[in-house]
Design a protein that fits this description.
single chain; DUF732 domain-containing protein; signal
Length: 92
């Protein structure tokens, strides 16, 4: 039983000490600006952080699609690019 406890403890420490991915505004913009050239960096960042707040309270990311479409007057495709990029890169 003790060896199992030691392995479990070691695994827990290793997982807890694993480095986290560094999210950044730069990576977010690098993903989006080549495809969504008609929006400014400021527009993309503002909406990205709005998406973060929206999903941060437990709402599904799919529910953010109409919000992004209305806010930026973009297509479903563009909204579906912005939302996951925000969640992944802006540390939502």
């Amino acid at each position: 039983m003790k060896p199992l406890l030691a392995v479990t403890l070691a695994l827990g420490i290793a997982v807890g000490a694993a480095p986290t991915a560094a999210a950044s505004q730069g990576h977010y913009l690098e993903q989006l600006q080549p495809r969504i050239t008609y929006l400014t960096s400021e527009q993309l960042l503002t909406e990205g952080y709005k998406v973060c707040r929206y999903v941060g309270v437990g709402r599904p990311t799919a529910d953010a699609i109409p919000m992004v479409m209305n806010d930026l007057r973009v297509t479903v495709s563009a909204a579906m690019d912005i939302i996951p990029a925000a969640v992944e890169e802006l540390d939502c």
